[in-house]
Amino acid sequence: MESKLFIDGKWCAPHDGGTLEVINPADERVFHRCAAGTAEDIDAAVAAAKAALAGPWSRTSGHDRAKYLRAIAAKIEEQKQALAEIEVRDNGKPLPEALWDVGDTAYCFNLYATYAEELDGRQGETISLPDDRFQTHMKYMPAGVAGLIVPWNYPLLMAAWKVAPALAAGCAVVLKPSEFTPLSALELARIAAEVGLPGGVLNVVTGYGATAGARLAAHPDVRKLAFTGSVPTGIAVASAAARDVKSVSLELGGKSPIVVFNDADIEQTVEWVMFGIFWNQGQVCSATSRMIVEKGIAPKLIDRLSEEAKKITIGDGMAPGILLGPLVSKNQYEKVLGYIDVGKSEATLVTGGARPSHLNEGYFLEPTIFADVSPNARIWKEEIFGPVLAVSTFQTEAEAVALANDSEFGLAAAVMSGDPARAARVADAFEAGVVWINCSQPTFLEAPWGGIKKSGIGRELGKWGLNNFLEPKQITKYASSDPWGWYLKG
Ligand code: NAD
């Protein structure tokens, strides 16, 4: 099967006829071919988005746009099972997780429909000034043509986090999904067409990062770039954006800590630590991949984690009862295996570290735990983006906080403690954009998402996500007949 690009409301062949192979990571087989869009295709998509912004789309109210967003959400809900199955074949994640992602995607479109309606009420809001001869009111303009570049770990959901607020704001967009997981973005395009979204408002160009992605980041007519992915690519995208002084938001990597005190509930801690590192095969930007545990509770907790990790069912995400699917690609598999080799020389392997013996094809890996990891170890400092937990111990609260914050990343952090005052203190001390107390990973689309340090610039989700795609304009009027005279009189 082969698919095309979605530009100006039409399915188009790529400029040079190039294709990219889509591989099912559970069996390593090519099951689809997508168009590999080129710089010329990106140019066509940006031109279509620009033309859409010059047409009736620019005169839509937030209420008008909300109708499209709600219609998209309804279709996604209706087609939840089919969309989730596409996500499983493309990415490898277990079906229940994919179903959850698709449900959250629909929720995201509905949420931004509400924000789009509220935006109408914000248009014209006044700002109180200290001089009553002047009146200032606000207009919130769409940022313009938005380039949206997304990764492979939550293909549809990451696209929704950007497409929904961008459309709510009134932008027209060009979406570039990951070359590893391009299919659900094309389904989103199909759904947008089915609900009658005007041509050019949502364009989807599948293709490689170095060609299609780089051209989108550098295109002079793109006014807003929203990127999620790795730090090196984020830096390249931000550098390209700087050349045209484009607005840019970056959601990048992480190496998030989970600090566990002796007074934590051990069974709850086991559950949250496991979820925090093994969910989505550990391919989660906010995965709590560094466990910093107080010395007293450490031996028991590591034993319990090891016991539970061995029970995790691994296999094809389409099979019932599977908790851990394959990693997304051969590249990612080899990268994570490489880190496991490094870990074996730096720390103590507690469990896992190899391909499960019952699976001889697919990018499968046992849930892996390393203990005695030093703060200088590569597996402690670098983002692995796989089901690999690194464990270190501490004796004092100050030591725990220092270890947690000793990272170039600052996306997320978690603390497990039975002492609410201590948990609150540690939460305040974390250098991170997202902090969890007595849990890890729950993410609500109403709350801001994003990190500090090398984890990114700006916030997505909630009203922060909408503001990403708006340019505020103040209009200040002199509302007095008195001569102003200040400049002339000195
Ligand atoms: P990646 O940086 O390799 O690719 C991300 C996207 O950028 C893909 O669509 C890719 O094609 C494109 N791209 C690659 N080179 C490009 C270039 N030169 N110019 C423009 N675009 C280019 O990242 P990945 O491997 O797909 O995703 C994993 C990374 O994403 C991890 O580091 C993870 O932490 C991060 N991530 C962060 C968040 C967050 O919210 N902070 C969420 C999910 C993933």
Task: Please tell me about this protein's structure.
The protein is of the alpha/beta class. It has 2 domains: 2-252 and 455-475, Aldehyde Dehydrogenase, Chain A, domain 1 (3-Layer(aba) Sandwich); 257-437, Aldehyde Dehydrogenase, Chain A, domain 2. It has helices at residues 39-54, 62-78, 80-91, 95-122, 155-169, 183-194, 209-218, 231-243, 266-278, 298-311, 330-346, 378-381, 397-405, 420-429, 462-467, 486-489, and strands at 2-3, 5-7, 10-12, 19-24, 29-35, 126-127, 134-142, 145-149, 172-176, 202-204, 224-228, 247-251, 257-260, 290-294, 348-351, 368-371, 388-394, 409-410, 412-416, 434-437, 452-453, 456-457, 470-478. Strands 15-16-17-14-13-19-20 form a 7-stranded mixed beta sheet, with helices on both faces. A 6-stranded mixed beta sheet has the order 10-9-8-11-12-22, sandwiched between helices. Strands 1-5-4 form a 3-stranded mixed beta sheet, covered by helices on one side. The protein is globular. The mean pLDDT is 97. Nicotinamide-adenine-dinucleotide binds next to helix 7 and helix 8.
